[in-house]
Amino acid sequence: GTILRGRGERKLILVATSGDTGSAVGSAFLGKKSIDVKILFPKGMVSQRQKAQLCAFSGNVSTYQVEGTFDDCQRMVKEAFMDSELNSKYDFSSANSINIARLIPQMTYYFYASLKFLKDRGRKPVIIVPTGNAGNVTAAYYALLMGAPIKRLFLACNSNHSITDYLRTGEYKGHKTIKTLANAMDVGNPSNMERLMSLFPKFEDFKANVDALCVSDDEIRQTISDYYKACGSFICPHTACSVYALNKRFSDSDDVVAVSTASPVKFSDVIRDVLGVAPPEDERFMKIISGKQQFTEIKADYHQLFV
After folding, report:
1. Which of 270, 209, 211 is nearest to 238 (CA)?
2. Are 161 and 217 in a shared domain?
């Protein structure tokens, strides 16, 4: 904001979110001078607590509930970027993985985790990454190719199956988004598949370097329950995909890191339904979502963002 102010410039950040990115971006830029943010989230496809967090902003951060899927929200952002008339009025940027600047900092924790694992155990780990739009795991591949001591990567998807279909058939086709308990991964046409396929352009190379499985809602529920019984801890539905893949495809003798993602507090309803008990409330989070909620409901048409 300081640099933009010094230049007399103003930036407009458009961010499509399937649940978590939007609230992180909104919190980061709330109140920043010379920066405006428009957050787009799909109606009925985020948890109630995620929605409450997304709609807790005001001032320079505006929230839009889109009648569509995350894929629609992402398409709207891309279409706005391609609109020459809008580009003459606004200085656009994105906080999605559309922007490579989103992936660069994500690489750091793959370096950290793999280096720590190597130091502690003397071996390179397999890392399991919960995967929806595939930005996070693409950052992990960049880290691996830059020298992070990762043995290989494994993608834990929910019931949205475009990546696993490609691994099975060799033909990539996006599909209509399937609503699941792991809603932040509800993406039918992951935009970062383009990046992954550019890293491994030949299908044989892609299949040799990328492995994945899909986890159903029933399997997510069972994993949340099993993990709680075994460890006494709560995990969110996305983390449950990672843990399921760990138990399904690996043995106790394998060196594996399973990535955990969102706070289980955001998914208290799901966890309570499965376990009969909810995770302890987070005081800071409750303060955020207990305030005034505001959003604008729009069709899946990017022009409505600028009315």
Report:
1. 270
2. yes
Domain count, the chain: 2
The CATH number linked to 297 is 3.40.50.1100
Do 294 and 64 contact (CB within 8 A), yes or no? no
Lateral strand order in the sheet of 35-42? 91-94, 11-16, 35-42, 61-66, 296-298
For 250, the domain range is 100-276
Q: What is the chain's length?
A: 307
Return the structure tokens found at 227.
């993990």
Same domain, 129 and 218: yes
95: left (phi over 0), alpha (psi -120 to 50) or beta: alpha
pLDDT along the chain (307 residues), means of 10: 66 92 92 95 92 94 97 95 96 90 94 98 98 97 98 98 97 95 95 96 97 99 98 98 98 96 93 96 85 94 96
Residue 158 pLDDT? 98
The pLDDT value given to residue 288? 81
